[in-house]
Design brief:
about 10% strand; about 45% helix; D-Maltodextrin-Binding Protein, domain 2; about 575 residues; alpha/beta; globular; eight-stranded mixed beta sheet; single chain; 25 helices
C-alpha cells in the first residue's frame, strides 16, 4: 500500500511539473484550502480564521467553478505576485480561472476609458488608480460598490472583508461617500535619504560649517531630515559639492525625459507639496493640487483669472524649483530618465537624498539583494524614509504629499456572473488571509492589520521607516488626486509636453504653467458629463483672486531652512 501511495504521489508531482496544472485539478477543494492556509502563514489572522475565510471563498465561488475572468493591472511587484501566486491560489480554492494581465499604467487607463465609453467589454475588472475618482463620479460608468454590496452582490461579499480595517477608503469614494473602487495596493511618495551618511559626525560637522559659510554662524543649522524645501536645497547643494569617502555623490535624484511619466511627477501632488492649493483633506478645497477650483463639486476653472491656481506664483515656483534641482544637483544623465528609469537608481550608492521617492521601488531587488550598497553589515537598510519636505507656500492643514491607491474597478457593462466572480477575485486579493504576504512581496499595504501584525512589527526595521509611517497619524496627510479633477485621462496629458519644453529652455516655467492652465480650462469647457459637469467662471483680473484669502496665493519669499533629527521624528510617529 505504501509503495502504491508513493508511486501515485510521484506521478502526481510529475504531472504537475510537466503540465503546470493547479493543485485543484488533482485534489479536493478542502485539501486545497488546507494547503493555502499553511502557505499564507504570515497572515494577521490565525490558521482557524484563515480556513474560515478560504472556506467562504470556496462556497461562494462554487457556482462559478470552471468560469474564466480577466483582470488587468500596472507593472509593479505587487501585481506580478497577484498574477503568479494569488491567481493560482484563487483557482485552487474556487475553481475560477483568472487571467491577470500586466501592462503599463497608461495602457491600463486607456483600456478602461475605452471600455467605459464604448460599452464593449475588454476586461471584467481593472486595478486602476483612485486618481480617476473624479472621472468615475462624473461619468457614472463604474459599479457603485456600496450599492452592489448591499443588494445584488451581498451574497458574494466576504463577511470577513472588514472595510474599517482598510486605510484610505475615502480615496475611492464619491462626494456622497459611495465606494466606487476598492483599494488593492497603495504606495506613498516620501522623502528618502542615506541615514548612514546623515549620522556620521564628520559629515555633520562639514554640513554645519557649510551652512555657517552660507548664512553666518548665527544661522548655521544641523544636518537632519529637511522640513522644508529651503533645507532640502541646502542639503542637495552640500552633498553635490562634497565627496563621501573620496567618491563623487549627488544631493538629489529625479528624472526629466519627455514622457507621460513626466506628467505624473507633477500631478502626483508636487504642486500640493509646494503649497499651491487650499487647506483641506483628502484634497484642498475649493482649490486642489492641480490648481482646479470647484464650487459645490462643479469645476469652475484652472487659470488664476477664473479663480484657479494652475498658473499661480506658487505653481510657477514648483516647476522652476524642480528644474533647478534637476539640473544642479542630480546626475546629468537624469535629464534622460523616465519614472521607471529613475526608480531604482538610488540603489547605486551615490545618492544622498531624494525628495520624491515612490516607496514601491524600495522593494526592488537592487535595494534588497545581499551585496547591495543599500544594506549594512547587519543586513538592514542604510536608508530611511521620512515626511516629504514642503515648499514655501505650504500651510498646516494642507495635504503633505501623494499616495497612489491602485483600486479594483468594475465597469458597469460587466454584469451577472462575470461581475460576481470578478468581485470575488478582487476581495480575495485584499483578504486578511493573504494581505501580509502580499505586503512582504510588494511593500504596498492597504490594511492596518497588515502593518500591526506580529510578523511585520518584529521585522519592521527591514522597511526603513515605511511601517512607522503607515502606522502614524500623519499618514492621512498623504493623499491621491481628488474629486476636483473631472477627467483625469484627458487632462493629465496636457502636463508633460509643456514641462518638457520648460526643461529644455524652449519656454519659461511661467509660460509652461500658463499653457497647462489654459488647456485644462479648454478641456473642461467642452466636457459634457453625466453629473457635476464643469462650468467655467467668467474671467477676472488675476489681482482680483490673488488678493483674496487662500489659493491662488501671491508671491512669497524663501523660507528659513529647517531640519529635524530622524530619531525625534520616529518618536513622534510612534
Amino acid at each position: 500500500m505504501m509503495k502504491l501511495n508513493f508511486q501515485y504521489s510521484f506521478a502526481l508531482v510529475l504531472v504537475l511539473l510537466v503540465s503546470k496544472a493547479s493543485l485543484a485539478d488533482f485534489v479536493s477543494t478542502d485539501e486545497a484550502v488546507d494547503h493555502w492556509v499553511q502557505e499564507f502563514s504570515h497572515s494577521s489572522i490565525s490558521a482557524k480564521q484563515r480556513k474560515a475565510e478560504l472556506d467562504w471563498f470556496r462556497q461562494a465561488g462554487a457556482k462559478f467553478k470552471g468560469k474564466k475572468i480577466t483582470s488587468i493591472a500596472e507593472g509593479i511587484k505587487t501585481h506580478y505576485w497577484e498574477r503568479d501566486v494569488l491567481a493560482k491560489a484563487f483557482f485552487d480554492v474556487t475553481g475560477i480561472k483568472v487571467q491577470h494581465d500586466i501592462r503599463g499604467e497608461g495602457a491600463v487607463v486607456d483600456l478602461l476609458m475605452k471600455q467605459l465609453t464604448s460599452g464593449r467589454n475588454t476586461y471584467d475588472i481593472y486595478v486602476s488608480d483612485a486618481d480617476l475618482i473624479g472621472t468615475h463620479m462624473r461619468m457614472d460608468g463604474a459599479v457603485n460598490l456600496t450599492r452592489y454590496m448591499a443588494q445584488e452582490g451581498k451574497k458574494y461579499t466576504n463577511p470577513y472583508l472588514d472595510l474599517k480595517d482598510f486605510m484610505n477608503l475615502e480615496f475611492a469614494q464619491d462626494e456622497k461617500g459611495n465606494q466606487l473602487q476598492l483599494p488593492d495596493q497603495q504606495f506613498a511618495n516620501l522623502y528618502w535619504f542615506r541615514h548612514d551618511w546623515f549620522s556620521r559626525k564628520d559629515i555633520q560637522d562639514k554640513f554645519k560649517k557649510f551652512t555657517a559659510n552660507k548664512y553666518g554662524k548665527n544661522k548655521q543649522y544641523e544636518l537632519g531630515v529637511p522640513v522644508n524645501w529651503a533645507a532640502y536645497e541646502d542639503i542637495a547643494e552640500f552633498f553635490t559639492k562634497t565627496k563621501v569617502d573620496g567618491k563623487k555623490v549627488y544631493g538629489h535624484l529625479d528624472y526629466g525625459k519627455k514622457s507621460p511619466s513626466l506628467g505624473w511627477r507633477f500631478t502626483d501632488s508636487w504642486l500640493a507639496i509646494a503649497g499651491v492649493g487650499d487647506k483641506g483633506l483628502p484634497n484642498g478645497y475649493p482649490v486642489d493640487e492641480w490648481g482646479i477650483r470647484v464650487e459645490k463639486n462643479v469645476p469652475v476653472g484652472s487659470s488664476v483669472s477664473r479663480g484657479g491656481a494652475t498658473n499661480s506664483p506658487a505653481a510657477v515656483y514648483a516647476l522652476q524649483t524642480y528644474i533647478d534641482w534637476l539640473k544642479q544637483y542630480a546626475p546629468p544623465e537624469a535629464l534622460n530618465w523616465r519614472w521607471e528609469d529613475a526608480g531604482p537608481k538610488a540603489a547605486n550608492g551615490n545618492i544622498a537624498q531624494r525628495v520624491f521617492q515612490y516607496i514601491t521601488w524600495l522593494s526592488d531587488e537592487s535595494f534588497t539583494e545581499p551585496g547591495s550598497p543599500m544594506l549594512g553589515k547587519d543586513g538592514l537598510p542604510v536608508w530611511r524614509v521620512a515626511p516629504t519636505p514642503h515648499g514655501r507656500y505650504w500651510e498646516k492643514g494642507m495635504k503633505a504629499g501623494y499616495q497612489d491607491a491602485g483600486s479594483w474597478t468594475i465597469p458597469k457593462g460587466v454584469k451577472g456572473s462575470k461581475r460576481n466572480a470578478a468581485w470575488l477575485w478582487a476581495q480575495f486579493c485584499v483578504s486578511k488571509t493573504v494581505a501580509v504576504d502580499k505586503f512582504i512581496a510588494g511593500g504596498t499595504p492597504v490594511r492596518l492589520s497588515t502593518l500591526t501584525s506580529s510578523h511585520i512589527q518584529k521585522n519592521k526595521k527591514k522597511w526603513g521607516g515605511i511601517v512607522e509611517f503607515y502606522t502614524s497619524k500623519n499618514e492621512t496627510l498623504w493623499t491621491d488626486t481628488g474629486l476636483n479633477v473631472p477627467h483625469y485621462p484627458s487632462m493629465s496629458k496636457v502636463w508633460w509636453p509643456q514641462i518638457a519644453k520648460s526643461i529644455k529652455g524652449e519656454i519659461t516655467a511661467s509660460q509652461a504653467m500658463d499653457s497647462i492652465a489654459k488647456q485644462q480650462d479648454k478641456i473642461m469647457s467642452r466636457l459634457k458629463m453625466s453629473r457635476l459637469s464643469p462650468k467655467l467662471n467668467a474671467q477676472k483680473t488675476e489681482q482680483h483672486w490673488l488678493l483674496k484669502d487662500g489659493a491662488p496665493k501671491p508671491i512669497r519669499k524663501r523660507s528659513e531652512p529647517k531640519t529635524i533629527p530622524y530619531e525625534r521624528l520616529i518618536k513622534e510617529w510612534n
